[in-house]
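[Automated response] Your request has been received and processed.

Submitted sequence:
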Amino acid sequence: RMMAARGCRVTVVPADTTASDVMALRPNGVFLSNGPGDPAAVTAGIVAVRELLGNTPIFGICLGHQILALALGASTYKLKCGHRGGNQPVKVTATNAVQISTHNHGFAVEADSLPDGIDQTHVNLNDNCCEGLAAHEQRAFSVQYHPEASPGPTEGDYLFRQFLKIIKELFFYERKRA
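Generated structure:
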């Protein structure tokens, strides 16, 4: 919905779609959506994202954040008490700005397991969970919370703009090279 509202043509594929099948669609970017359960159980998705890294820009939210982290080599863990509902304070590490976010997850990314070159971009101020990451070289980033829920009411909009900016910059770079 948020990407379509910004003029994007969105193609939805099942979670078990292979990276080669995704790339056959010639996407300008891949959005990893939310979903239920243990991210480690989504083995086909993790493999596909690992293969997509560096081939197309990637933006993940919630379960998509966790799958991206696993594809990058990080680990996840089950929270003692999941994060549910709105009014969850999240700090943007680059600016120290605090956003109010909406959550619905029982697993989290282990911040200490993020490989070198992967930055933690957001932190939950209630329990210091990793709420976001960026793999700049691979043009991939994600957040644990739901920016599409507009809890702030539009604090998460910049993430969608950031994703489109990466896509546009890559598109114009590729056109220049051709």
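Summary generated for your ticket: DSSP finds four helices and seven strands in the chain. The beta strands are 30-32, 58-61, 76-92, 98-109, 119-124, 130-135, 140-143.
If you did not submit this request, please reply to this message.
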